[in-house]
Amino acid sequence: MSQALYRKWRPHLWDEVIGQDHVIQTLKNAVRADRVGHAYLFAGPRGTGKTTTARLIAKAVNCLNEDPNIRPCDQCKHCIAVNEGRFLDLIEIDAASNTSVDDVRELRDKINFAPTEGKYKVYIIDEVHMLSTAAFNALLKTLEEPPSHAIFVLATTEVHKIPPTVLSRCQRHEFRRIPVKDIVGLLQDLSQKENIQVEEDALTLIARQSTGSLRDAISLLDQLASSGNAVTLSTAQTILGAATNQLVIELVNAIQTQNTAEGLNCIHRALDSGTDPRQFARQIVEYLRSVLLINLGSWETVDATAETKSRMEAHAGFFASAELVRITNLFNSAASDLRSAWQPSLSLELALAEAIEPQPARPDLEVPQRSQINIQRTAVAAPTTTPPQSDVQTTSQQTSREALQPDKAVHSVKKEKPVEEIQQPPAAQETAAVQSSDIPQEEKEEVSTVTLSDIKNHWREIRHLVRDYSIPTQTLLNSCKLLSFKNNTLTLGFTTDILHSKMNTKENLTLTSRAANHILNAEIQVRSVVMDTKAGKAPEDLNIDSEGIIGTALNLGGQIVDRD
Ligand SMILES: Nc1ncnc2c1ncn2[C@@H]1O[C@H](COP(=O)(O)OP(=O)(O)OP(=O)(O)O)[C@@H](O)[C@H]1O
Ligand SMILES: [Mg+2]
Ligand SMILES: [Zn+2]
User: Does residue 72 have a cis peptide bond before it, meaning omega lies within 30 degrees of 0?
Assistant: First the structure.
């Protein structure tokens, strides 16, 4: 099997180490001046060059080149021996597997022997934070009085776990995450030399996914190129699971168009594909943050593929910065919300609902004045607990018959058509389910001039009218299903409790009712319910006999939509 690319491309010279100039410069100077210290601590994230730099020290201090300015030369026999992993005076210890005090004692005993080949014995102790306390104490003794021929380089990704007594005896260097553009540059160079065909956007995606670790970045490229085909953005997206990025963009689109149903759909698609909800929330926050930065004019600080950036720009042009701050905050809380532990999607759904419904209902909603809605004949919509019948009576007393235009799309029917026969308007996306309320039962004597189908046919106009008064209410109406119209009461079904509870306010129900009254010239009460989305399953709180008529309907795939 061929050598892993990241091993093949381990820097051999100081100048090949990227993104750590502050460390490299100091070490280079020390080598030149022959003032290399006896104990170094390299701290920083994984894959940023700690082991690489430690080996460069081993090479540089043992390099046979006469000019200290060009040590390591990478050509003398010592440099070559280090490169090939057979230089006897370079001792690499993985503290993760040699944590005991005996291991350190053994090291201490051997350290006094003079170097075999070179001038210095260099000990690299990787993952040094893994040592036991006793082992640290043993190491400390050695660090206090190292023999003049010994150099220690301790490396760690978790510097906070290193005892202060050890820290104080080392020259400490912090390794940084490598910036995306530097990673892209290195990957470009490397692909050219390795003859890998790759799109620049794919490299940016790889760089972003590797979160500053060059080893990860090179490994990802290696993995993507292993098929021998060109590495395109789309293959990179597919293989790296970055497709969720697309869902983030779609979610923000849904917020922009105030389409709650679509937004919920994005959330559920992301979670169904195995994305961790908090991770998804973080991705949304990261995206919105970039949109905000662009919105504030800081275009160049945003790291993204050209395609994503153009979407960000479009969003930045649409949202006001205050709005972006508000929405980002909502998803930021979702990212850290502990409630997600028991209901993974809840925090995200709440954030979405709040993002789309920004302001509390405007006070003038109570009495809309900007349209010709006939205030006189409207009534407060029936609360779900009140039998609709009683409200119908009240409102019909208030109805001013003259305001109705009987010749305009108004039909007189005695009973409703079953839901299956009614054509679904474009807004109703869910498939119609058999409703338990369609099970033959005694018809209530009722005369309505409007049918559910009339309401469906005019639903678009009704929503448009509502929009004039409240965009949030209209948004909620976009994501509900028109379930039934009985006893002059239109029942709106929502798939989640959150949306239902948002809709179920006096303002929202009244406004919708008024708009419907106005468009259809009829008396229409509105109420909201939560649909049981699991057809065939009875809600647990309803004591349903599985042999009875409702139970049988449920067993056949029916769905309870009206619990009153
Ligand atoms: N700063 C860098 N410049 C160039 N290449 C780098 C750099 N950092 C890492 N690499 C690449 O990543 C590989 C691994 O780097 P290295 O082993 O030095 O990382 P590390 O910081 O020791 O990581 P860990 O903490 O996981 O041990 C190298 O072989 C090299 O290909
Ligand atoms: Mg290392
Ligand atoms: Zn050399």
Answer: yes
